[in-house]
Amino acid sequence: MSLGIVVALAAEAQVLTGTVPLAGEGIDIAPGLRLRLCGMGPEPAAQAAAALLAEGVGALLAFGTAGGLDPALRPGILLLPERVIYAGGDYAVAASWRSRVAARIHGELVSGPLLTVANACAQSGQKRALHGRSGAVAVDMESGAVAAVATAAGKPFLVLRALVDPAERDLPLSAMVAVDAYGHLRLSALLAALARRPWEITALLRLGREMSAALRSLRAAWQDLGPSGIVP
User: Band of the pLDDT at 22, cuts 50, 70, 90?
Assistant: First the structure.
C-alpha cells in the first residue's frame, strides 16, 4: 500500500529526504512513499492529507516533532501514540500497522495519547491544563487533522513524532516570531525580538539543542525503519 507523509517543517522533511518539497507540492521520496510539506497548523495539514489521498495514497502518516505535556517526558523521546485527540474527536491509529512499526524501532517508544491544537502551546501553565483536561502526553498542531481526514476517507493513519520542549518549559517569546510556518529562520524578526528580550538568548540556545535531539531521534527511527518498514 502506498503511503502519504505529512510534515509541517522543512527540518522534519529533511529527516526523510534530501530534497525538501516546496509548499503545496507533493514529491515521491521512495517507491510507494509520497511526502507533502504543509506548514504548521491543522488547516494546512488537512489540506495536505486530502491532496495526498487525491493523488492515490492508501494510508497517511503524520511525522515530525511535538511538545511535552507529561512532565515525565524528556526531549528526544519518540512518540508512537495509540490515539490522537482533536476538536472533540478521539481517533485510534491503525493498531496492527503501529505494532509492526514499533517492533522495528530500537529504543523507548511512548504510546500515550497525542493532543492536536490549533495554536502553539508555549506556556507551562497551558501545558499543565491541557494535560489535566485531556490526559494527553504530548501536543502538536497537525496530527489530529491528518487523523480526521484519514478517518473520513476510511484510510488507516499513523503518527510518529519526537518530543522537543518538556512540559515544565515555557517557550521563549522570541522563538514564536523567529521562524515562519515551515520553520525557516526569519533573521530580522529574531534580532528585533532579542533586542527587546536579550535574556532569552540562553532559552533559545537550549530550545535549539532540544530540537536537535528530537530530529536525531526521528532520524534514528527512520534508519531503523527504512521505506519498506514504514508502509502499512
Answer: confident
E strand or H helix at 109, and its extent?
A: strand 109-110
Closest CA to 159 of 120, 109, 119: 109
φ and ψ at residue 57, rounded to 5 degrees: -70, 155
Partner residues linked to 88 by β-bridges: none
pLDDT tens string 23-39: 878 899 999 999 999 99
Q: Angle at which helices 143-153 and 42-54 pack, to 10 degrees?
A: 40
Closest CA to 4 of 45, 37, 36: 36
User: Residue 227, class by beta-carbon neighbours within 10 Å (0-12 exposed, 13-18 middle, 19+ buried)?
Assistant: middle
Residue 151 domain boundaries: 3-230
- Residue 1 clears pLDDT 90, i.e. is over it: no
Query: Rounded CA gap, 125 and 167, in Å?
Result: 9
Tally of structural domains, the chain: 1
Do residues 8 and 64 touch, judged by C-beta distance below 8 A? yes
Of all helices (H) and strands (E), which one includes residue 138?
strand 138-140
Please report the pLDDT score of residue 140 as a whole number. Answer: 98
pLDDT greater at residue 70 or residue 122: 70
We report the CATH number of the domain holding residue 165 as 3.40.50.1580
CB 212 within 8 A of CB 183: no
As a 3-state breakdown, the chain gives helix, strand, coil percent values, each rounded to 5, of 45, 20, 35
pTM to 2 decimals? 0.95
